[in-house]
């Protein structure tokens, strides 16, 4: 605040002293008569100028956030203010002069008087002053919005990185590698497929930053690979069911979103049950909406996920809102005492 | 020879570890458990000397399992990369193996066990003991910190409701065991019931003073002052032949 004020006053002082000196210089070089009086008039005129432009600024600041008005509205406000403040300036100046010099010759009518007694000058100077003021603010605002935009961009980048990190769940990767190593002797054929599945998952989790959306079909392939690997680990403790409407396969979804939710279902649901459980993935059309649900055996623990605020869930929300704004919804709840349901509803693009 | 029990909820992880242990004939895998509950039962039945223990298991973690044991066998933790578990290991200086287990790391861990055995060579006879000897270790967990404590390092057990407070070095965490249950299992030549609330380690007594009513006042090596009731003081003097 203090810095702003001092900048403004510096500008005022600098501008007006330049104006004053230039005028005095011209009066001096052009050898005008009664230079003395002219300088005194000039001082008064300048004083009044400072006062009226300051009045202009004070009035303008009554319009909070004038910077965000549209251009026409700004123009109207400025013109009204410029005309009125320069009028004030003119009258005050003339009053002071009349008081000092006594009655000076008056014009025939009010309008001529205006022209005669320097209203044009005060208006022109006010106008120039306003233009400078406006440009200053315009530039300043642009600079701050640019800074804001950069900040926003870096936040988004950070979020992306975090998501990627969250998706390359190291615990899963090393567990998978461990089971694959065990499979090498036991079932070499299955071990080979498992390596393919794992590389598919790694590949797609690295591609996440390159694409905005993928088709549900692609996403499902990844999820199937992922579940196949988890099935090697959990064996009969993990059952999987699908109910996918074929019409939804072509629809676009955020990459790795379904994968994150399925991973959550296993990490917080199935892996905590001694006898394991079922993951049920469904995708259907609901009027003009695409609904995906992931159910898993287990229960949300209140303290862990109140309304789903784990990082995976948070990033799901954010990515949905980046893509669909507020037209997509995501919630996670206990469907009954043995099942958790996560539900994503997206508009058909 | 060491009897080992593998506790892990994944069959493949267990079979992989067994395969690796085949190179170490001195370790005999006597059983496998698929979760914490199963693990506790098998420990009671098979009396293993060594546990290979997974941290993340359904229902209860490996740490929970250890906290329920009366005495803990030697433990080597196994885990896939897991930030939380790694922190706990580093912080508490526990021995752990990362899955997939590197054969050399496994050999190192086993080697370390043998070195420890050398130190404990003076311990009591083998076989199944009902009493806890001073070389037995208990697993103690207190918030984020956990320890394997040898009984000989414990100065004092103090009754706190259903729990017992364990005094060793500068720590005094709680364990979920009643003082009476402890007394039954502790070797009375080492651990003495001084009064209703305290069991003291006789080798950790700094000073003995007479107290009114024919009782005694013991000052432990940690500075704790423990009163010995009159009835117990008679017993105490007999034992110490004062």
Automatic annotation (TrEMBL), chain A:
<protein>
    <submittedName>
        <fullName>Histidine kinase</fullName>
    </submittedName>
</protein>
<dbReference type="Pfam" id="PF06580">
    <property type="entry name" value="His_kinase"/>
</dbReference>
<dbReference type="InterPro" id="IPR050640">
    <property type="entry name" value="Bact_2-comp_sensor_kinase"/>
</dbReference>
<feature type="transmembrane region" description="Helical">
    <location>
        <begin position="37"/>
        <end position="56"/>
    </location>
</feature>
<keyword id="KW-0472">Membrane</keyword>
<keyword id="KW-0808">Transferase</keyword>
<feature type="transmembrane region" description="Helical">
    <location>
        <begin position="12"/>
        <end position="30"/>
    </location>
</feature>
<feature type="domain" description="Signal transduction histidine kinase internal region">
    <location>
        <begin position="160"/>
        <end position="238"/>
    </location>
</feature>
<dbReference type="GO" id="GO:0016020">
    <property type="term" value="C:membrane"/>
</dbReference>
<dbReference type="InterPro" id="IPR010559">
    <property type="entry name" value="Sig_transdc_His_kin_internal"/>
</dbReference>
<keyword id="KW-0418">Kinase</keyword>
<feature type="transmembrane region" description="Helical">
    <location>
        <begin position="118"/>
        <end position="139"/>
    </location>
</feature>
<dbReference type="GO" id="GO:0000155">
    <property type="term" value="F:phosphorelay sensor kinase activity"/>
</dbReference>
<keyword id="KW-1133">Transmembrane helix</keyword>
<dbReference type="InterPro" id="IPR036890">
    <property type="entry name" value="HATPase_C_sf"/>
</dbReference>
<feature type="transmembrane region" description="Helical">
    <location>
        <begin position="76"/>
        <end position="97"/>
    </location>
</feature>
<keyword id="KW-0812">Transmembrane</keyword>
Automatic annotation (TrEMBL), chain B:
<dbReference type="InterPro" id="IPR007492">
    <property type="entry name" value="LytTR_DNA-bd_dom"/>
</dbReference>
<dbReference type="InterPro" id="IPR001789">
    <property type="entry name" value="Sig_transdc_resp-reg_receiver"/>
</dbReference>
<dbReference type="Pfam" id="PF04397">
    <property type="entry name" value="LytTR"/>
</dbReference>
<protein>
    <submittedName>
        <fullName>Response regulator</fullName>
    </submittedName>
</protein>
<dbReference type="GO" id="GO:0003677">
    <property type="term" value="F:DNA binding"/>
</dbReference>
<keyword id="KW-0597">Phosphoprotein</keyword>
<dbReference type="InterPro" id="IPR011006">
    <property type="entry name" value="CheY-like_superfamily"/>
</dbReference>
<feature type="domain" description="Response regulatory">
    <location>
        <begin position="3"/>
        <end position="114"/>
    </location>
</feature>
<dbReference type="GO" id="GO:0000156">
    <property type="term" value="F:phosphorelay response regulator activity"/>
</dbReference>
<dbReference type="InterPro" id="IPR046947">
    <property type="entry name" value="LytR-like"/>
</dbReference>
<dbReference type="Pfam" id="PF00072">
    <property type="entry name" value="Response_reg"/>
</dbReference>
<feature type="domain" description="HTH LytTR-type">
    <location>
        <begin position="140"/>
        <end position="242"/>
    </location>
</feature>
<feature type="modified residue" description="4-aspartylphosphate">
    <location>
        <position position="54"/>
    </location>
</feature>
